[in-house]
Every structure is written in structure tokens, then in C-alpha cells.
Design a protein that fits this description.
The chain is α+β, with helices and mostly antiparallel strands. It is 22% helix and 38% strand. Strands 4, 5, 6, 7, 8, 9 and 10 form a 7-stranded mixed sheet that branches. A 3-stranded antiparallel sheet has the order 1-2-3, with no helix packed on it.
């Protein structure tokens, strides 16, 4: 089988993260080389964490405006999502999950367990997303949360019973990929 060959990388934009046009050759049918040209967005790796209170049987999610969903026809642009964010330089995925949980929800999490890791859009984005399930105490003390104002975040909390979350999952209400993956994983593995 032939190897992948990169012929050129042209930067199309470098405003926040690099967007590059990549000219390359890859193995095709029967090992025959195929030349292609793709646009690749070099986005940092990220985490998503589903917060679970087993005693109260609740899941804690977030709701926030996403301009991409708005531009794609969602009338409000709001998505219900698992807590998520980019991994800061020098931070482990686990550290990022704990930080993001406090920033977005105000809750300190514990018993963080890895559920997997995925490329959310491998056809054009380099981001590798680490998925976690963690516990929170819905009746315990917590900080304000709501996201970082400096980053323009305005996040509302959505607490659902296990039954409500399962019904929404089966109804197709969760249209954010990381959230659907985590909720499905939770109901397959952790809730019995």
C-alpha cells in the first residue's frame, strides 16, 4: 500500500486557529494513489463531560447560543449540551473537564470517568474530543457558573431527570453530537 504524501499546505486564515488548504495523495482502491485537496481547520483538542447525580437521578446539561446552528436554520440557535470546552496548554483532559464544569455549571465534579474520545468532524477539523461522565451533587453548594463573561459566554443550566433525558434522547431532541454520545453512553453503561 502506498503512503500518504503531503504536497502543500496553504494557510487560508489564521485569525483564531489556522485554516489550511492541504494538497495530498493517499492510497485509493487497490493501493492506487489518489490526489486530493481539502480545507482543514486546526482546532485544539477538547473535552465534554456529562454531570450525573445518581442519588437524585438527574443529569446536568447546559444551554447556550451557537451561531453555527443558527446559520444552519435553527431558529433560536440554542443547543442543549454536555459541559464542554477546549483543553488549555499544559492541561490534561481531566483537568480541563474539572475546570470547565466549574466555569459552566458552578459545580465541582468527582468520580470522573473516561467514556471515550472521538474526532467530531474528521473530514475537516483536527479537534480530538475527550468524553467523560462525572458526578455532581445537585443539592450541594456550588458556585454561580454560567460561563466566562470575558469569552462572551452566557450559559443556562438544564437539569433533567433520568426519565426526561431518556425520553428526549429517544425523541431526537439532543442534536449536539457530543451530548448525544454521552447520554447514550450513560444509559447503555451506567444506569442499568
Amino acid at each position: 500500500m502506498s503512503e500518504v504524501k503531503i504536497f502543500s499546505e496553504t494557510t487560508l486564515s489564521d485569525k483564531k486557529y489556522p485554516l489550511k488548504e492541504i494538497s495530498f495523495e493517499k492510497p485509493g482502491h487497490g493501493g492506487k494513489p489518489v490526489k486530493q485537496l481539502h480545507e482543514i481547520y486546526y482546532r485544539p483538542d477538547a473535552i465534554a463531560v456529562l454531570l450525573v447525580d445518581y442519588q437524585e437521578q438527574t443529569l446536568l446539561l447546559t444551554e447556550q447560543f451557537r451561531v453555527a446552528s443558527y446559520l444552519n436554520g435553527d431558529s433560536s440557535g440554542n443547543l442543549i449540551e454536555a459541559c464542554a470546552g477546549l483543553i488549555d496548554e499544559g492541561e490534561s483532559p481531566e483537568q480541563a473537564a474539572m475546570r470547565e464544569a466549574i466555569e459552566e455549571t458552578g459545580y465541582t465534579i468527582h468520580n470522573l470517568k473516561k467514556a471515550g474520545a472521538v474526532y467530531p468532524s474528521a473530514g475537516g477539523v483536527t479537534e480530538f474530543l475527550h468524553l467523560f461522565i462525572a458526578e455532581y451533587n445537585s443539592k450541594g453548594e456550588h458556585q454561580v457558573g454560567g460561563g466566562l463573561e470575558a469569552e462572551g459566554e452566557y450559559i443556562e443550566l438544564v437539569e433533567l431527570s433520568f426519565e426526561e433525558a431518556k425520553a428526549k434522547m429517544f425523541a431526537g431532541t439532543f442534536n449536539d453530537a457530543k451530548t448525544l454520545l454521552l447520554v447514550q453512553h450513560f444509559f447503555l453503561k451506567y444506569s442499568g
